[in-house]
Amino acid sequence: MGTGPRHPPHPGTAPPGPAAHAQRGHPGQPERQDPRTGGRHGYDGAKKLNGRKRHLLVDTLGLVCKVQVTAANVGDRDGAMALLGRRGRWLPPGATPPIVSPFAVVPRRWVVERTFAWLGRYRRLSKEYEYLTATSEAVIYLVMTRLLLRRLTQP
């Protein structure tokens, strides 16, 4: 029996609450797993990616040096420029950057993709559960620390 103009609510019953969202399924599902809530999200039409992008600066072994998580609608070039612009934080205050030889391209490919595969093995990084981008970056650093510690302790 429903309520409406023909059927008034029964006395002593609570008024009906808001209906559950159609794509969330069960109304008891935690909101942090809903991809539309919280944090900075976007859509990249070229890569068909919805959510966030991870920009990584890695060495030749695939170990993460620097991370930046942005909304998906930020272009790769803009994300890379912002990531490389953050490298100045590695120097102590007042220090001048060292003079290095010109950059040489190393003929190693797919190093970054291998790093993304390592990160994808962890459940917390397989989807975007975090509300803040800074928390996502911190989790990536924690995972890489765990990977390094495992490699150091293995004989």
Oligomer: single chain
Radius of gyration using CA atoms only: 23 Å
Q: Classify the helix fraction into a percent range.
A: 25-40%
The total count of helices amounts to 4
Please mark out the parts with pLDDT under 50 across 5 or more consecutive residues, or reply none: 30-36
Mean pLDDT: 76
- Beta content comes to 5-15%
Q: How many β-strand runs?
A: 3
Cα separation of the termini: 69 Å
Main β-sheet, spatial strand arrangement: 1-2-3
Largest sheet descriptor: 3 strands, antiparallel
| Tertiary shape | elongated
Helix/strand-derived class? alpha+beta
Strand/helix succession: EEEHHHH
Can you put this structure into words, describing what you see?
By secondary structure, the protein is of the alpha+beta class. It has a domain at 38-87 and 109-153. It contains 4 helices and 3 strands; from the N terminus they run βββαααα. It has helices spanning 76-85, 111-120, 123-126, 133-153; strands spanning 42-44, 49-58, 64-71. Strands 1-2-3 form a 3-stranded antiparallel β-sheet, with helices on both faces. A hairpin with a 4-residue loop joins β1 and β2. The N and C termini lie far apart (69 Å). Residues 30-36 have low confidence and may be disordered.
Which terms would index this structure?
alpha+beta; three-stranded antiparallel β-sheet; 4 helices; 29% helix
